[in-house]
UniProtKB/TrEMBL annotation:
<comment type="pathway">
    <text>Amino-acid biosynthesis; L-tryptophan biosynthesis; L-tryptophan from chorismate: step 4/5.</text>
</comment>
<dbReference type="InterPro" id="IPR054875">
    <property type="entry name" value="Indglycph_syn_Halo_TrpC"/>
</dbReference>
<keyword id="KW-0057">Aromatic amino acid biosynthesis</keyword>
<keyword id="KW-0822">Tryptophan biosynthesis</keyword>
<dbReference type="GO" id="GO:0004640">
    <property type="term" value="F:phosphoribosylanthranilate isomerase activity"/>
</dbReference>
<dbReference type="GO" id="GO:0000162">
    <property type="term" value="P:L-tryptophan biosynthetic process"/>
</dbReference>
<feature type="domain" description="Indole-3-glycerol phosphate synthase">
    <location>
        <begin position="26"/>
        <end position="247"/>
    </location>
</feature>
<keyword id="KW-0210">Decarboxylase</keyword>
<keyword id="KW-0456">Lyase</keyword>
<dbReference type="InterPro" id="IPR011060">
    <property type="entry name" value="RibuloseP-bd_barrel"/>
</dbReference>
<dbReference type="InterPro" id="IPR045186">
    <property type="entry name" value="Indole-3-glycerol_P_synth"/>
</dbReference>
<dbReference type="GO" id="GO:0004425">
    <property type="term" value="F:indole-3-glycerol-phosphate synthase activity"/>
</dbReference>
<protein>
    <recommendedName>
        <fullName>Indole-3-glycerol phosphate synthase</fullName>
        <ecNumber>4.1.1.48</ecNumber>
    </recommendedName>
</protein>
<comment type="similarity">
    <text>Belongs to the TrpC family.</text>
</comment>
<dbReference type="InterPro" id="IPR013798">
    <property type="entry name" value="Indole-3-glycerol_P_synth_dom"/>
</dbReference>
<keyword id="KW-0028">Amino-acid biosynthesis</keyword>
<dbReference type="Pfam" id="PF00218">
    <property type="entry name" value="IGPS"/>
</dbReference>
Length: 254
């Protein structure tokens, strides 16, 4: 993980901050709400299974939205979100463990912890139903998946390429997120999910992440095999309930 990896400067800064962050004092133990079950229930209800993300800001966001995370969460669930994602990275995304803790206490849907977790001890920062593990940033992916599962987390293993998908599958990943955002240039390309998803086995739960804005984007990711869509900016920018509902109803016959 260094400049020779070709990361955007923002990624280098995020990783430097992540390396310095301590973990929790005590090992957590989670009784997790099933993310795959929540996605399947939404699908059976005729809703596009959206994981709506509470992201106050980001390296590609103009400005910052410091609305009450619980109010945002309740609006997203009212809009039909199957699950939520909460940023806990403070320095570049305006997130916090407290925000995740408060949101998880306020809703019944599964909550994903979205952060740049690099070390096992960082898993103990806060309980969540699922935790993001980014293949590209982890040398001991097998160990981190095992450590997450031992605590009761559902690991959402994030990839960007077919090679990273192979690493994720070899490490036993059952929940795989394909991030359409390129960490070198930070631009998004929805064809990333289409290309990588085509290489995934049928028994893996696939989440399309990033760059999903319109109802057609949602339908496009679903046609490509997405079992869930992780959406932040398009929901956070404006009315979160209406924005979520626009995506969760994208497959309802007009
Ligand atoms: O969102 C960013 O600007 C960003 C920049 C650098 C690394 C990661 C970043 N985002 C994390 C995510 O993966 C997204 O927050 C998530 O997939 C939602 O993406 P979007 O719907 O495009 O906001």
């Amino acid at each position: 993980m260094n400049a020779s990896e070709g990361y955007a400067p923002a990624i280098e800064s995020i990783l430097a901050a992540a390396r310095e962050r301590e973990g929790g004092d005590e090992r957590v133990s989670v009784d997790a709400r099933s993310l795959p079950a929540a996605l399947s229930t939404a699908d059976a209800d005729g809703r596009v299974p959206v994981i709506a993300e509470i992201k106050p800001t980001s390296p590609t966001t103009d400005g910052r939205r410091d609305a009450d995370p619980v109010a945002l969460a309740e609006a997203m669930v009212e809009g039909g979100a199957a699950a939520l994602s909460v940023l806990t990275e403070p320095a570049h995304f305006g997130g916090s463990p407290d925000a995740l803790r408060d949101v998880r206490a306020a809703v019944d849907v599964p909550v994903l912890r979205k952060d740049f977790v690099l070390e096992e001890a960082q898993l103990d920062t806060v309980e969540a139903d699922a935790v993001l593990l980014i293949v590209r940033f982890l040398d001991d992916l097998d160990g981190m998946i095992e450590a997450a599962r031992e605590r009761g987390f559902q690991p959402l293993v994030e990839v960007h390429t077919a090679a990273e998908l192979d690493r994720a599958l070899a490490a036993g990943a059952e929940l795989v997120g394909v991030n359409n955002r390129d960490l070198a240039r930070l631009d998004v390309d929805l064809s990333t999910f289409e290309q990588v998803a085509a290489e995934a086995p049928a028994d893996v739960t696939l989440i399309a992440e990033s760059g999903i804005g319109s109802s057609e984007d949602a339908r496009r990711m679903r046609r490509a095999g997405a079992d869930g869509l992780l959406v932040g900016s398009a929901i956070m920018d404006g009315d979160p309930e209406a924005n979520t509902r626009r995506l969760t109803t994208a497959e309802v016959e007009a």
